[in-house]
Automatic annotation (TrEMBL), chains A, B:
The keyword Repressor applies. The keyword Metal-binding does not apply. This is TetR family transcriptional regulator. Residues 8-68 form the HTH tetR-type domain. Keywords: DNA-binding, Repressor, Transcription, Transcription regulation.
């Protein structure tokens, strides 16, 4: 996959400042002025890099997607297919603080994207990307005899994708599901696929 | 369950105006002034009913939860246990426009709730309520011999809850899963519970 975005250090620095602002005050708290202050630069300098609030939000979402994608690719070398699927899915589940930050910011931006075509497109791209990833994991598991012949890969991808997104939200906003329990559920679900 | 909120017509009228503003411009677009204009009243009149933006958002979230609860209770008379579970779960899935509006507004408010204790508490209450509903459905299905003895009701409630929340988000933001397919997946999942 080609790099979607320019890894200019200044752009990354600003995007990370945006994340901190979103974490502190929600997506509704994001103004060019606040993000500039958080990044320690002037609003004018920020506007030079990101002429509009939308451009800044779009870059920030793409940066999160790209970082997740890089971490996912790092696991493709894991030998055991079930363990590989688990490791890859763990990259999109907010099990630790770094992933919680990503997920929180991403959710805030996705929710705030309604009516903004550029952000909506990026958000749909992430949705489609995660569906494709789930499907690829299932095709891989089937290749290793770990998905029962009666199961439909597209149906299972839809199920796995919804399960992962629901668990991600629950790790983030709920108080009921500790990471260890979510990991156990994901593993149990993947293992259950070999049965009818 | 006692009524959580006062069904004053004026409060409801203002909350519904808020929903329209959120649908149009996201939770970040919500200001007392905009909502007052949308409701056709003065900002002063709105502040008389809801002294703060938080009070308005909290009422709006509780109103959605109460409406969902009322619809859920209306299905408890359905005879067939699988059909009853399906009907009840359909009330929290945005299959049609009315439920899409609720879900969209709720998601926007939940995401915007970070750092606002009153809103966070209401959002956690909704999370816990849906988990309890999923668990109650599974206990009911087990009573009718429709959940295999090897399955743990709490684990299954966690799975069903995550699945439902993920599917709800996908119905709302994705472009891949038409309602008919989501209904089929939910039914298939409920039916699969009787197997090991």
């Amino acid at each position: 996959m080609p790099k979607l975005i320019d890894h200019d250090a200044r752009r990354t620095q600003i995007a990370e400042a945006l994340w901190r602002v979103v974490l502190r005050s929600g997506a509704s708290g994001v103004s060019i002025r606040d993000v500039a202050a958080e990044a320690g630069i002037s609003a004018g300098s920020l506007r030079h890099v990101f002429p509009t609030r939308e451009a800044l939000l779009e870059f920030s979402m793409l940066l999160i997607q790209e970082r997740v994608g890089e971490r996912v690719r790092a696991h493709t070398a894991v030998r055991d297919p079930l363990r590989r699927a688990e490791k890859i899915l763990a990259e999109v589940l907010p099990y630790d603080d770094a992933r919680r930050v990503e997920m929180h910011v991403n959710l805030a931006l996705v929710t705030d994207a309604a009516g903004r075509p550029g952000l909506e497109e990026i958000s749909l791209g992430a949705h489609d990307g995660l569906r494709a990833l789930c499907r690829a994991l299932l095709v891989d598991l089937r290749k290793h005899g770990l998905v029962h012949a009666d199961r439909d890969v597209d149906d299972e991808a839809m199920h796995l994708h919804a399960l992962i997104d629901g668990l991600a939200v629950h790790l983030l906003v709920g108080r009921t599901d500790p990471p260890a329990q979510v990991r156990r559920l994901v593993r149990g679900h993947l293992e259950s696929l070999s049965a009818n």
